[in-house]
Amino acid sequence: MSTPRPDLAAPHWLTQLLRSKPVPVPWNMVARAVIALAVPLAVAYAAGDIAVGALISTGALPAVLSESAGPYRYRARRLGGATLAATAGYLVGLLTGGVPALSVPAVILVAAVSALISAAGSNASVAGLQMFVFCVLGTGQHATGVRVEVLFGYFCLGAAWSFLVALVSWTFRATSPERTAVAHVYVELAAMLSATDEAVSRVARHRLTTAMNTAYDQLLTARSWLSGRDAAYRQLLNLLSATTPAVEASVALVHAGRRPPREVIDHFVALSASVLASQPLPEPPPAPEDEADPRLAALYAGLVRIGKGDDRKRREPTPWYRRLRTWAGSLASGPLTWIAALRLTLCVAIAEVVGLLVPFERSYWITLTVGIVLKPDFGSVFGRAVLRGIGTLVGVGIGAVVLAAGGRGWILVALIAIFAGGVAVGKVRNYGILSAFVTPLIILQMDLANTGSWNVVVARLVDTALGCVIVLVFGYLLWPGSRRPQVGGRLADGLDAVAKYVSCALVEASSGEARLARSRARRGAYRALADLRTAFQQVVVEPSANGRQAVAWWPVIAAQERVADAVTEVGVTIGRGVPPPDPADVELLTAALDELATAIREQREPRSVPLPDREQLAGVVDQLESAFDAVRGPDLVERTPLRLVRRFLPYHRRT
To answer: Taking every annotated instance into account, which residue ranges of this chain make up the domain Integral membrane bound transporter (predicted)?
Structure first.
């Protein structure tokens, strides 16, 4: 079975880089950003001193830049940590600013700490970034002539205001984010089952996987220890758990090219509305008495299961000291975090030296650009540098227009509101859009409100260009291994997850524990494949060998997903008049997947292995053979020499 050349179907790297994510506009986040940033300016202007409003508005930036959708408990921890870290960084910058002998070492040290704490998780990563950003911004505030304690007080006032705006609706919308996440699962189920085209249904399946992962993450993160709210979270979690059989049966139907009756799709839509409105669930449609298709019978049984719910065992929260120990272990177990910290520290040091040499006031934007682009765990360095440059060029152009129009007073307040909303949209759509709005926003807050000079616009453009050049030259082109292909190990990990799912899905689950293990294995496999796809999409934007190899390996990702779907199709029929496959055949399948993973790790072509010759597993075998063909070629020059991957794999295995 042949595989089409991936480079013919893949988009150009620049097109991929500029592509905006097709997600809805987060109007709630837009509204919060506008209120948090524009209201202090409006109040201060009405009181006669808009410059004070700009300083207070600056303190509101950490929460706006760190804002994300999710449960209130999660957002409180995320925004609280980011705000505290930004406040600490800003204070360090204020105390050392104006004295290069103090500010340069302080910024370099904060950059290193910011990179290291990124290994502790996404919230720690965001907090580290805010600490670095506002440390750099703080070093430039000595030029305002305002006392340090006054600047710090205004910043704290703005930080408290934005934190209040972000969480003010918690008291009367406590479980609304979680209900929305669960309801979205049913919406995506209906969309997948309604698709008539194979390509559309596959995209819908990806969106369903994302919705399931998001819902589980939010519920497991948000569950409160307060008894009054714990019951609501537990009910939603049980409902989501009971939906898993319906999800599996739906994926099996779509993979087989079957579509359920319209009443089933309408029922999923009705379930979504009921969950959102916190109303009793509708009765499921009755199953046809003469239904012979076990996949469709499994779907109807899954609909009944949703109404009954599950009783999941409560998962105890991980103590803080155990999380701290895990983070410390990640630092000691492998050099990847240390290498990222070293790269960031080196480039920040170069940026600080360059900032002392350029003939511009407040050249901290050079360092700021370097830190934001090179921040670990935020995707392709090359892609972020290019998008940062393009976005800043657009943003500076907007700033120039504002200066030319002589924007002051209420015009300035309105512009801040527009840019704040643009930042909220850019965060979820595209990094270039974010840069295009955040640049004029910070210019207006920290520069134009006080100086109003054209030199500010020119300086910001030159500073950003210098920062991007430092990143591209020292952090990408000259940095060892930055352009080296590094995707093979992740593919092998995805195959391991699929193999684990095969061993759990193709046996009869006669007990609740077995069904729970199968459900977790399925979620683990699809989550691993979703993460793998995201990681490859980050790398594919690079024009280097790293990006070209990611394009060449892309068919292997698609093959893994089809294997998982084929396994799901067989698994949902087991126990509904269909016996489970022979254990020896299941072992052959897992051995074949292990061989694929081993071949990728050992940089060789996979050997031919025996596969089951049973009608029941024919679909799985066909997709598995396609995976073997995808790993072998046919003519994927960008994968060779495979020994390049070896330099990455020792680090990958340790982390």
So the answer is: 351-474
Neighbours of 472 (CB within 10 A): 18
CB within 8 Å of 233: residues ≥ 6 apart: 175, 178, 219, 222, 223, 224
Amino acid identity for residue 351 in this structure: A
Concatenated DSSP letters of 547-588: HHHHHHHHHHHHHHHHHHHHHHHHHTTBTTTBPPPPHHHHHH
pLDDT at residue 260 is higher than 80: yes
The phi and psi torsions of 599 (rounded to 5 degrees) equal -60, -40
Per-range mean pLDDT, top range of 150-164, 377-391, 428-442, 541-555: 150-164
pTM: 0.65
Sequence-distant (6+) residues with CB within 8 A of 325 are: none
Q: Which amino acid is at 301?
A: A
Return the residue matching tokens 């009405």: 46
Name the DSSP class of 196.
Answer: -
Report how far residue 61's alpha carbon sits from residue 54's, in angstroms, rounded to the nearest whole number: 11
Answer yes or no: are the C-beta atoms of 449 and 51 closer than 8 Å: yes
Type of residue numbered 171: T
Both tokens assigned to 224: 């409160």
Q: How far apart are CA 165 and CA 36, in angstroms?
A: 6
**At residue 655, does pLDDT exceed 50?**
no
Provide long-range contacts, Cβ within 8 A and 24+ apart, for 231-238.
232/174, 232/175, 233/175, 233/178, 234/312, 234/314, 235/309, 236/175, 236/178, 236/179, 236/182, 236/275, 237/312, 238/309, 238/310, 238/311, 238/312
Tokens of 462: 């030159």
Q: Is the pLDDT of residue 642 over 90?
A: no
User: d(Cα 565, Cα 557) in Å, to the nearest integer?
Assistant: 13
When pLDDT is cut at 50, 70 and 90, the band that residue 649 belongs to is very low
DSSP string, 471-503: HHIIIIISSTTTTS---HHHHHHHHHHHHHHHH
| Cα atoms in the Cβ-side hemisphere of radius 13 Å centred on 312 | 24
Distance CA 284, CA 299 (A): 11
Rounded to whole angstroms, the Cα distance separating 180 from 70 reads 10
279 has a pLDDT exceeding 90: no
- Cα separation, 339 vs 234, in Å, equals 42
The reported pLDDT for the residue numbered 146 is 82
Q: Which sign does the torsion angle of CA 339, 343, 344, 349 carry?
A: positive
Three-class SS string for 12-61? CHHHHHHCCCCCCCCHHHHHHHHHHHHHHHHHHHHHCCHHHHHHHHHHHH
586 contacts: CB under 8 Å, gap ≥ 6:
502, 503, 506, 507
pLDDT reading at 54 higher than 80? yes
Rounded distance, CA 535 to CA 485, Å? 13
pLDDT attached to residue 87: 94
Query: 3-state secondary structure string, 105-165?
Result: HHHHHHHHHHHHHHHHCHHHHHHHHHHHHHHHHHHCHHHHCCCHHHHHHHHHHHHHHHHHH
| Amino acid at site 440 | P
Model pLDDT for residues 572-586, shown as the tens digit of each residue: 878 776 788 888 888
CA distance 298 to 575: 10
Q: Which residue is listed with tokens 């990179």? A: 115
pLDDT of 452 above 60: no
Report which of 346, 335, 380, 384 is spatially closest to residue 648, judged by C-alpha positions.
Answer: 335
